[in-house]
Amino acid sequence: MAGLRRLEYRGYDSAGVAVLADGGLAAARKAGKLVNLEKELAARPLPSGTTGIGHTRWATHGGPTDANAHPHLDNAGQVAVVHNGIIENFAGLRAELAERGHELRSETDTEVVAHLLAEEFSATADLAEAMRLVCRRLEGAFTLVAAHAGEPDVVVGARRNSPLVVGVGEGEAFLASDVAAFIAHTRSAIELGQDQVVELRRDGVTVTGFDGRPAEVRSYHVDWDASAAEKGGYDYFMLKEIAEQPKAVADTLLGRIDASGALTLDEVRIPASELREVDKVVIVACGTAFHAGLIAKYAIEHWTRIPCEVELASEFRYRDPILDSRSLVIAISQSGETMDTLMALRHAREQGSKVLAICNTNGSTIPRESDAVLYTHAGPEVAVASTKAFLTQLVACYLVALYLGQVRGTKWGDEIRAVVRDLAQISGAVERVLETMGPVRELARSLADKDTVLFLGRHVGYPVALEGALKLKELAYMHAEGFAAGELKHGPIALIEEDLPVVVVVPSPRGRSVLHDKIVSNIQEIRARGARTIVIAEEGDETVVPYADHLVRIPVTPVLLSPLVATVPLQVFACELATARGNEVDQPRNLAKSVTVE
Ligand code: AGP
After folding, report:
1. Where residue 474 sits, what CATH number does that domain have?
2. How many domains does the chain have?
3. Do 364 and 280 belong to one domain?
4. 19 CB contacts (<8 Å, ≥6 apart)?
5. Residues in the ligand 1 pocket, defined by CB under 6 Å
6. N or C: which end of the chain has fewer CB within 10 A?
7. Do 357 and 260 lie in a common domain?
8. How confident is the model at residue 228, as a pLDDT?
9. pLDDT tens-digit profile of 253-270?
10. For a substitution probing ligand 1, which of 334, 376, 570 has the most ligand atoms within 8 Å of its CB?
């Protein structure tokens, strides 16, 4: 339980434990926060044992209910399994198991593993071998940990694309998603590699590949203290979450593209026939989520030719919007609890519009009150300033735009597959950006005493400028403002003065080159008036070099997808500048992670 408490920040939709004792397996699990499980165990204690597994859940498939809580057991209650990640081929496995007489009792993808392990164990009587056989049938990202009544002093784990680390103590061993869970017991850890199975016994740890061959592993000493461990060794959750963006983007794509490369957004439970009737899309959101909506507008209109409005949720219903059954309202919210956005979607539904939620929190109010939902799989975002949630909101918006194009026939299959291939490259592109942020951090620290920073952008770069300004406002408590670069000469250029830092998000010259030329002129205009220009431009764009006091390179990316890489330096810039000012980065003053008041 102490271990689970240390991991609770990673997900708190439900929790559960299973213990091997008295020759059998006993389990308890409860929806909601860990305290609910603790109350359950106080009321109905499990038999005491020294071998067991536990889980705190961040729901992906199936809402946060007791039935969906991990661990999941087979029908005979002999094997228990907990899981992080997404098993993409679970639907087919569920169907096979049901045909073989298994009774599946949850909505989760995880449960199929319990039944498959039970089948394999009955043939092998060896849980590690059973796990290897099962893992070879799974597709997607998963960390699995299991225990079986037939092997009372064994725990077995497996990982693919999802974290799992081993703690090696004196006569004891641990498995966890994060060292925070066992750092109070041991600092000796083993890092597991891709597609590996680990077997923990009283006398030691064995690691093999899914093929059974012994695997090379790296042992290391954990030198973090327990509280740092919860942040994965980072000083702030925000830094950890910025670093998690490549994985968050990749995870949000998982399970949404079928073998033929077509989109299968099965949570979008609005019939294709109704989507074909949609004649207007209205996006409602707040803050960073609103900026995601502004970017989504460019993709939706370009790929589907449906008019798309983007509205601040707090303004939406007071302007008496024109809505009907052919309006599709998209509510974007990380927390799923933002009252402004909730009230906006309620208003839309009262007008007879269908509402699709894009949300990062399974089972929260906004998806529950929507007609359909597309979950982002960013994992829990703890820092108030939204980073990985924003990037995954963009990915989800692109998927919705492509899906609308797919069902309405405005995008051919090969065009959709081409964009999906581009999206699949983004994770690596973001990784590359993160590896080159040293100069951005240094620049941010050098500007810590400035009063104002302006942000300029054009096309999809304009909402990126707004987002960069918001990050700086909410983290560094500094006046920051984003403008459409073309708007500068209509007033804001009066703000330019000697050495005023201005961040310019430059569109790719490969897109509409006229846009690129115009923003280069804008850079010259502000530089001529003394601005210090901080230019975000793609690799190979040499035109901007003479006018950039500071040049930040981003990977070449398709024009509409470029916000996914252009935003990252602005997140790092704001976080570093706030740190240089000694601000509390994870909980900025006056703010809350979820604004549940209007
Ligand atoms: C962004 O960094 C802020 N935390 C804030 O603007 C946030 O995006 C906004 O409150 C919306 O929250 P939601 O996505 O949970 O609805």
Report:
1. 3.40.50.10490
2. 3
3. yes
4. 25, 26, 27, 46, 47, 48, 49, 51, 52
5. 286-289, 333-335, 338, 341, 384-386, 474, 594-595
6. C
7. yes
8. 66
9. 988 888 777 888 878 889
10. 334
